[in-house]
Amino acid sequence: MEFYMPTKVYHEKDAVLNHASEIAAIGKKALIVTGKSSSKKNGSLADVKKALEENGTEYIVFNEIEENPSIATVMKAAEIGRSQGTDFVIGVGGGSPMDASKAIALMIYNRDSSEEVLYQKIDLKALPVVEVPTTCGTGSEVTPYAILTRDDKKTKQSISHKIYPVIACVDAKYLMNAPKSVIVNTAIDALGHFIESYFNKRATDYSCMLCQYGMSVWAENLDVLLGEDITEERCNSLLLASTLAGMAITHTGTSIPHGMSYYLTYNMNIPHGKAVGMFLPGYLKLMSKQFEDEVAMILEGLGFANIEQFAFFIKQCMEVCELSKTDKQNILNEIMENPGKMASIPFEVSESDVREVVEFMGK
Ligand code: NAP
Ligand code: ZN
Prior knowledge:
- By secondary structure, the chain is α/β, with parallel strands linked by helices.
- The chain has helices at residues 15-18, 20-24, 38-41, 44-54, 71-83, 95-109, 180-198, 205-219, 222-225, 232-252, 256-268, 272-277, 280-288, 292-302, 307-317, 325-336, 339-343, 351-359, and strands spanning 8-11, 29-35, 58-65, 88-93, 129-133, 147-150, 155-158, 167-170.
- Helix content is 52%, strand content 12%.
- Helix 7 packs antiparallel against helix 8 and helix 13 packs antiparallel against helix 14 (292-302).
- The longest helix is centred in the middle third of the chain and has 21 residues, at 232-252.
- The structure holds NADP nicotinamide-adenine-dinucleotide phosphate and zinc ion (ZN).
């Protein structure tokens, strides 16, 4: 077994300001990478700017990261970062700006390389990266993954390079005023990370420990996901769960629900967590063929009596979309041709087993 988790995590109120001098000392000029507007509204960008200014570290801001970031946007930001002499990158926002910040850090460091290197299996370094999450799902603040949209393959895929953030600053205050849909979708993404990491060929005692404890934390928040008002305590709990889930998938990767979700996001613009959630009940059903007792134990820990109740919960907290016959077939074809995700399933499965995962929510 191997356990490697090099990111220093500060999870506390005012984490960015409390550790300002440590963050600012990483380099001389930071490239702050954000989405279009949320980081301005939730105070995260202001905190990062203040932390750098107080310590005399220069910075520039790139605020054009779109949801499911494109390679073109990554290359644009990297070009600006290179020309402005930035020597470290701070990602602020949800998984999209955090993932983009890692790919940008790689492309600034490798200044003479073209975008092709993003998906080449070669050894490349990157500038140091700091992450400040403002959603409660991806765990990108601790994972080495950077998922970008690949128009050449009409899907999404993590770049080939593992880029671990050096510091993650997790602060519940940025999440407090997020729209309910962002909280629900991203929390379901974190649950997907737990389930797909726990039932995974690469699972170890260490990753299972993260999943078991993390799911118990996650389950404290069922009422919030079903409509109760969010509190600071609940934001902290959801963020703790998502960071733990990120640590778990760092060691195992995700499985077929994530692999299937990319079709829905790429072709139907369905948010990441919602797209993953569509396939979680079906994945648990498949896992119960081999691990009936463990599936029952996980469901009980999450607060559900059986898979049907879990599927009902998913439908209650998010609008599950209807899939056409063609979409279902395309999702099946795409996942069957994804050797990485198929190899993560912990036992031999047939195509008809996988088809049942695709179809479960439609039944
Ligand atoms: P996101 O795409 O980063 O953001 C979704 C939306 O939420 C954006 O409109 C964003 O606005 C807004 N937003 C973010 N924080 C907010 C806040 N505190 N208050 C209000 N609005 C807020 O969403 P995400 O689900 O966190 O990230 C999804 C991406 O992460 C996908 O590309 C997925 O593939 C990837 N992912 C990565 C990993 C990994 O291990 N690296 C794991 C799972 C998923 P702005 O655009 O204005 O900021
Ligand atoms: Zn995910």
